[in-house]
């Protein structure tokens, strides 16, 4: 089957994670992604081969110095044959290097230009790394045990989420048939992902609370629980789930969601006591056939042992494959590009 994005050419001036992850999603779906790198290459090449490969497999690399006239001319020539340009740099650098729709539209009126920044193209160059954004938007304050310090997730939640959002914005504008400027900021994406927390505060003034074991604000019980060995994530969102779980765990009462919310402390005490009767893996095996949402807390290594089909090969690297499944299509996972493997310009479509 022809790749969903076959024939789409996307230029990337990206560094580290958010931008390269956005275009990785597009490359896995068949887009031709040309990574425009400075003479020394994307700084993520210095982090490690596996890091770089995980974000840049299947792309092409062109080395350009966008600070000189020749580099700008070659950028324009590439833009003339592209559908989109995705950038994640400081706003001042994006403007200075001419990586906006206004700067490039004379080369290609239908070019879609996507800018990933920390706070917006017009918001200045305040440092905007993933962890900084999580701290600034309230995510860190919501995470961790209430008796302890705020906590950051163990992966780049803001960068990855922003990359996905940017890829969506890029494709939406291509589908519209119009060129133009698209902006996506890490701050705005994380505010968006705080959706129901923010809505509750804005509508009623109810500030979200950090709860033990990551407990959900509305559903009870929906959190991590200790067991005889290991921790279990349990997510009871309606009375049917509770009936099945309570029957297996030997808990009586609390039959409605409203009652469980009103008597949260009693429910959590009953569930915690019941779960000491088996280990986390045992509870998962017992609850899964009943349709109850539950999973033992595992390490990444343990999780991948159970889902080997998530791992793909790209050149010499073993990586996690695309999360998007399209009927009849299987991605071709090419290796990450060597720096400047196409010099200053890849072959034209006609030549390939």
UniProtKB/TrEMBL annotation:
Superkingdom assignment: Bacteria
Stored SUPFAM superfamilies? CoA-transferase family III (CaiB/BaiF)
Alphabetic keyword roster: Transferase
One Pfam short name: CoA_transf_3
What is the recorded name of this protein?
Answer: Crotonobetainyl-CoA:carnitine CoA-transferase CaiB-like acyl-CoA transferase
């Amino acid at each position: 089957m022809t790749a969903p994005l076959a024939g789409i050419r996307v230029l990337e001036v990206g560094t580290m994670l958010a931008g390269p992850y956005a275009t990785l999603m597009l490359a896995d779906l068949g887009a031709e992604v040309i990574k425009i790198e400075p003479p020394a290459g994307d700084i993520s090449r210095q982090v490690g081969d596996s890091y770089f490969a995980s974000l840049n497999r299947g792309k092409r690399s062109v080395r350009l110095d966008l600070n000189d006239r020749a580099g700008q001319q070659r950028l324009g020539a590439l833009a003339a044959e592209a559908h989109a340009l995705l950038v994640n740099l400081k706003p001042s650098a994006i403007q200075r290097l001419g990586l906006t729709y206004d700067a490039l539209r004379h080369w290609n009126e239908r070019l879609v230009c996507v800018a990933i920044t920390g706070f917006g193209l017009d918001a200045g160059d305040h440092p905007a790394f993933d962890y900084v954004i999580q701290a600034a938007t309230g995510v860190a304050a919501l995470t961790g045990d209430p008796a302890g310090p705020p906590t950051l997730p163990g992966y780049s939640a803001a960068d990855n989420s922003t990359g996905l959002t940017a890829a969506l914005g890029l494709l939406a504008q291509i589908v519209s048939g119009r060129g133009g400027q698209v902006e996506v900021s890490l701050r705005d994406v994380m505010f968006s992902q705080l959706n129901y927390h923010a809505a509750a505060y804005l509508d009623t003034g109810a500030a979200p609370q950090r709860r033990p074991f990551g407990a959900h604000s509305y559903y009870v019980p929906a959190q991590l629980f200790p067991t005889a060995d290991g921790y279990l994530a349990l997510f009871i969102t309606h009375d049917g789930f509770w009936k099945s779980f309570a029957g297996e765990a030997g808990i009586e009462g609390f039959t409605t969601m409203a009652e469980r919310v009103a008597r949260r402390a009693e429910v959590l005490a009953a569930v915690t006591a019941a779960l000491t009767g088996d280990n986390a893996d045992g509870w998962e095996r017992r609850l899964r056939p009943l349709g109850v949402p539950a999973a033992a807390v595992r390490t990444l290594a343990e999780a991948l042992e159970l889902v080997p089909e998530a791992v793909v090969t790209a050149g010499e690297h073993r990586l996690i494959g695309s999360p998007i499944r399209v009927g009849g299509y299987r991605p071709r996972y090419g290796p990450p590009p060597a720096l400047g493997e196409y010099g200053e310009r890849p072959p034209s479509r006609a030549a390939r």
